[in-house]
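Anyone opening a protein record will find just a pair of labelled lines. A complete record is shown below as an example:
=====
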Amino acid sequence: MVTEIYIVYYSMYGHVEKLAEEIQKGASSVEGVEAKLWQVPETLPEEVLAKMGAPPKGNAPIITPKELAEADGLLFGFPTRFGMMAAQFKAFLDATGGLWRAQQLASKPAGIFYSTGTQGGGQETTPLTAITQLVHHGMIFVPIGYTFGAKMFDMGKIKGGSPYGAGTFAGDGSRNPSEVELEQAFHQGKYFAGIAKKLKGSS
């Protein structure tokens, strides 16, 4: 019995995408789990993205709302805009009304990962405000807590992430996710997949 994990993300400059790729590796390391990457649709015109210096999108397929119902577990990733999820991801979730009416996402485990520009830019408010989306769908939020261990307490390096989920700092866009941030993303994928697998096995 295979447990299907969908890692659904929006990434403008590639930071969230890098986290998503590590999360996929972590989830796929759990026996009996298949993890797939998906992107949500872009809402900005190409000319606007070009003026913003956004690189080309990755190769992950574009997901439709109805495809969310196929997954046994969902991990959602997005950058921050003023302490909340980016509008592109919110627009995608706004289109899940049909799933909500039929409660097709109810009881599915879900996790969150994210990127912010600065240390005070929403490493906790972004996932905290995103949880409302999960609640209205009746989903089960799975945070990582402090299961990542000692590296969550290390004050010697700048690093993103929190008990809510893996995170990174983008800075002005030139900073890439650090080794520790990528390790935390791998951990989140593995940890989440293990829980999703248990939940499916008990249903």
